[in-house]
Input
Amino acid sequence: MPESEPLREPAATPTPAWPRRALLAALEVVWWWAAAVAVWTLTLSSVPDQELVAAAACGLPCGIAARAGRKAVAGSWRPRPGWAAWLLPLLAAVPVDTVRLLLLTMRQLRRWNAEGELTRVRLPAEPPDVVAARHAAAVLVVSATPGTFVVDSDLEEGTLVIHNLVSGWPQLEQVVRR
Output
């Protein structure tokens, strides 16, 4: 009887890359869709079913457009986990700035000359894949309070120009530099 050959496992066929890319693309669209629906519902004073249907229907094209826009500009953000620490001062800054702005508004009703001040802030140097993400996160955090907003952002120089109508603790323009 001839010796039998050992059974060999068939060679593993490489998995095509397109299903993975399609899955990642679908997940990104779903992420942007959920973000659009969340922003829509956050602007409502009540959440009736009709608004949820409208948010879902309008959010899907927004999700598709957001992914297409990110791909068009070759955007690839690499956020740092430590930036989440910015959220704590932000939570404090919103009510504090709201009170300051209310007081300023009451004072300005008499004088009408509120100008505020412009401040140029240099963000720390980061690797190229992190710079755009840091700029976007910094602009979002600083502009989220009623007393400040970002007037200009220069990605190449790593600077933000911030308009402060009111100032004081917590100074988010200093927080985002850490």
User: Anything to note?
Assistant: Strands lie at 117-122, 148-154, 159-164. The longest helix spans residues 17-42. The longest strand covers residues 148-154.
